[in-house]
What we know:
Blueprint: H1 3-38, H2 41-66, H3 80-110, H4 117-138, H5 146-175, H6 179-207, H7 217-225, E1 230-240, E2 246-254, H8 263-277, E3 285-291
Amino acid sequence: xxxxxxxxxxxxxSGRLAIAFGIAATILIxxxxxxxxxxxxxxLVDAAHMLTDVGGLLLALFAANLATxxxxxxxxxxxGRAEVLAATAQATVLLGVGIFVFVEGAQRLVxxxxxxxxxxxxxxxxGFIGNIASIMVLLRVRSANFNxxxxxxxxxxxxxxxxxxxxxxxxxxxxxxxxxDAVVAMLIGILILPRTLKLLWETIDVLLESIPRGLDLDxxxxxxxxxxxxQSVHDLHVTQISTGLPVLTAHVVVNDECFYxxxxxxxxxxxxxxxxxxxxxxxxxxxxxxxRMAHVDHEHVTHA
Length: 304
């Protein structure tokens, strides 16, 4: 794909994200009005979930536009880490919403308030139709990158939440069982919390510079040691700047003669090719420091 084709693809994806963001923002406003009119906990939870999703879509749209900006002298990796920070904040807020749902839901199970099921159903239907429209907008490009995949999954979850609100309205309208609102709200919370905890754990892993998921450091070390002329490897670190951007650094001890017979450049090429192609997590950004056997006497305390 040429740079022109890639820029055109990013522009197209940004347009779809902008449409989905507009739909989500409209649904959010409608649901806030619905909460004020009905007092429904299920609708309040869905609105809170929608608020985080609107933020997520805005972040995805922002990230899609930032992707066209090159790195600079101040930010040599560009703005990739901003995605991780924003996702961590979003997950933290969503976790708080989930905890609130169970506390408030338990209270409402004991003493359920009277809720008008008719308006609740109307706002649930509005949300469901809007979310289906967003799903159709993002369906064709959902696999283009991690941002779009996350945006698509958020929209699907919103549709399920809106469907749950409709079900609660139907149960209350036909049976008069007002506890259905709290039960459905808690069910939505159960759907939210596992995804939230998973997202929070993954972003904290990135911020703590943990090994990228799906990569075995011992396997990386083994393959490096199998390359010709390599004697040992130390200070091997693999971290992740942002989604899809793993980075590797390592000190590699090679035979002394490699520095005199011209093997050193070929070893660098082989090392970079090894980590870029051999593993499921392909590492395109790698830095290797070649050292002679005697260099260890001048090293600081090395890491594994």
